[in-house]
C-alpha cells in the first residue's frame, strides 16, 4: 500500500493478531523463506485472528490502533557538500513532536528512492544530530538514495518525551513511522515517495522490527544489522540490569516483571505480531558479536520463516558488533537487496 497523505492507520485499529514463535538456525548459513504477498490497496495490511481487547497504552497494539502522522519535512542548514550529495540538517513532525535529523540528497535529477535510518543506542546526553551510522549515510547517498537519518525524540534538537524510557522507548517507532510519512508528504522533487526502505542497526534493529508489525506496508523493504533482541525483557537483562540501571526498577514498578505481568511483555515484543509483516527483511549479523548475540537474529529469522515471511539471515564469520573488514561486502549485499525491492 502506498499512501501520499500524512496519516497512517493500521489494520490493528479493528483487529488483533495471533502470537508468533521463535526457533533456531545454523551457524554461518543464509536462511531464506518464500516471499509473502505484499499489502495492496484492495486488501488488508495483515490477517489478524482475534477480536481486540483494549490495548495497554505502552504496547505494540496501542501503536497499531493509533492514527500516526508525519509531515512538515524541512531542510535547514547545509552541513556538507560533496560531489555526490548535499547534507542538510532537517526536522519533521511525528505524532505531534518535532524530530530532528540529517538528510543526504544525491546530486542529479531524481527523484531518488529514500531510506530511513534508525541508529543504535547512544546516550542522548552526548548524542549529536546525525551521529549514528555515518558510514551508511555516506555510502548510500553516493549510491543514489535520499538518506533520512532520524535522531529520535529526546535526542539532539528533537522534542522531549519524558515518559519514553519507562515506556520501553516505543516512541522511537513512532518517530520512524513519522519519517516515512513525512518523506511521502514532502512534495520535494528529489524524493520518490513510492520507494522507501528502512535500515536500522543494533537498537535501531529493534525499532525496525516494531515498525514492521505496527505499520505493515508503509516501507518497501527493511534491513537490520546486529540487532538487539526482539524481546524487550531480554534486552533489559542483557544491557541494563547488569549495570544497575535504575530505570529497570521504574519499568518493573510500572509494568511488572515478566513473571508478574506476562501479557504486558508479550504485547511489547514484535515476535508476538510477526504475522502482520508484509515487507521483505534482510538481517546481517557477525558471528563474533559480543554485544548482541547472534542467537537473537536466528530466533527472529526462524519466527519470520515459520510465519511464511520473506526473510534472509546473512552471518559474517569473525565480525563483531560494529563490523570491520566485512562491512563493505555486507553493504554490497544491502544495496543489492534494496535495489531488488525499491527499483
TrEMBL record:
<dbReference type="Pfam" id="PF00326">
    <property type="entry name" value="Peptidase_S9"/>
</dbReference>
<comment type="similarity">
    <text>Belongs to the AB hydrolase superfamily.</text>
</comment>
<feature type="compositionally biased region" description="Polar residues">
    <location>
        <begin position="29"/>
        <end position="39"/>
    </location>
</feature>
<keyword id="KW-0732">Signal</keyword>
<keyword id="KW-0378">Hydrolase</keyword>
<dbReference type="InterPro" id="IPR001375">
    <property type="entry name" value="Peptidase_S9_cat"/>
</dbReference>
<dbReference type="GO" id="GO:0052689">
    <property type="term" value="F:carboxylic ester hydrolase activity"/>
</dbReference>
<dbReference type="GO" id="GO:0008236">
    <property type="term" value="F:serine-type peptidase activity"/>
</dbReference>
<dbReference type="InterPro" id="IPR050261">
    <property type="entry name" value="FrsA_esterase"/>
</dbReference>
<feature type="signal peptide">
    <location>
        <begin position="1"/>
        <end position="18"/>
    </location>
</feature>
<dbReference type="InterPro" id="IPR029058">
    <property type="entry name" value="AB_hydrolase_fold"/>
</dbReference>
<protein>
    <submittedName>
        <fullName>Peptidase S9</fullName>
    </submittedName>
</protein>
<feature type="region of interest" description="Disordered">
    <location>
        <begin position="25"/>
        <end position="57"/>
    </location>
</feature>
<dbReference type="GO" id="GO:0006508">
    <property type="term" value="P:proteolysis"/>
</dbReference>
<feature type="compositionally biased region" description="Low complexity">
    <location>
        <begin position="44"/>
        <end position="57"/>
    </location>
</feature>
<feature type="domain" description="Peptidase S9 prolyl oligopeptidase catalytic">
    <location>
        <begin position="140"/>
        <end position="324"/>
    </location>
</feature>
Amino acid at each position: 500500500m502506498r499512501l501520499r497523505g500524512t496519516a497512517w492507520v493500521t489494520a490493528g485499529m479493528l483487529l488483533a493478531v495471533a502470537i508468533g514463535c521463535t526457533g533456531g538456525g545454523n551457524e554461518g548459513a543464509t536462511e531464506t523463506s518464500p516471499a509473502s504477498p505484499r499489502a495492496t490497496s484492495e486488501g488488508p495490511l495483515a490477517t489478524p485472528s482475534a477480536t481486540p481487547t483494549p490495548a495497554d497504552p505502552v504496547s505494540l497494539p496501542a501503536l497499531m490502533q493509533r492514527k500516526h502522522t508525519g509531515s512538515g519535512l524541512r531542510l535547514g542548514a547545509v552541513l556538507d557538500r560533496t560531489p555526490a550529495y548535499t547534507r542538510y540538517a532537517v526536522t519533521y513532525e511525528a505524532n505531534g513532536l518535532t524530530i530532528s535529523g540529517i538528510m543526504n540528497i544525491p546530486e542529479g535529477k531524481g527523484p531518488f528512492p529514500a531510506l530511513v535510518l534508525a541508529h543504535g543506542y547512544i546516550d542522548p546526553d552526548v548524542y549529536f544530530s546525525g551521529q549514528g551510522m555515518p558510514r551508511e549515510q555516506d555510502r548510500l547517498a553516493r549510491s543514489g538514495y535520499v538518506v533520512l537519518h532520524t535522531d529520535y525524540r529526546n535526542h539532539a534538537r528533537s522534542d522531549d518525551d519524558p515518559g519514553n524510557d519507562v515506556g520501553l522507548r516505543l516512541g522511537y517507532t513512532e518517530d520512524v513511522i513519522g519519517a516515512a510519512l513525512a518523506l511521502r508528504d514532502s512534495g520535494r522533487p528529489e524524493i520518490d515517495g513510492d520507494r522507501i526502505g528502512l535500515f536500522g542497526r543494533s537498537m535501531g534493529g529493534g525499532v525496525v522490527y516494531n515498525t514492521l508489525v505496527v505499520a505493515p506496508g508503509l516501507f518497501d523493504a527493511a534491513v537490520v544489522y546486529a540487532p538487539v533482541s526482539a524481546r524487550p525483557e531480554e534486552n533489559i537483562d542483557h544491557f541494563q540490569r547488569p549495570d544497575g540501571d535504575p530505570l529497570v526498577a521504574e519499568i518493573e514498578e510500572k509494568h511488572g516483571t515478566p513473571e508478574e505481568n506476562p501479557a504486558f511483555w508479550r504485547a511489547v515484543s514484535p515476535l508476538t505480531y510477526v504475522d502482520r509483516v508484509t515487507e521483505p527483511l534482510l538481517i546481517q549479523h557477525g558471528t563474533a558479536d559480543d554485544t548482541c548475540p547472534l542467537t537473537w537474529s536466528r530466533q527472529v529469522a526462524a519466527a519470520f520463516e515459520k510465519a511464511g515471511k520473506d526473510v534472509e539471515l546473512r552471518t559474517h564469520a569473525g565480525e563483531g558488533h560494529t563490523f570491520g573488514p566485512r562491512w563493505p561486502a555486507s553493504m554490497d549485499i544491502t544495496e543489492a537487496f534494496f535495489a531488488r525491492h525499491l527499483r
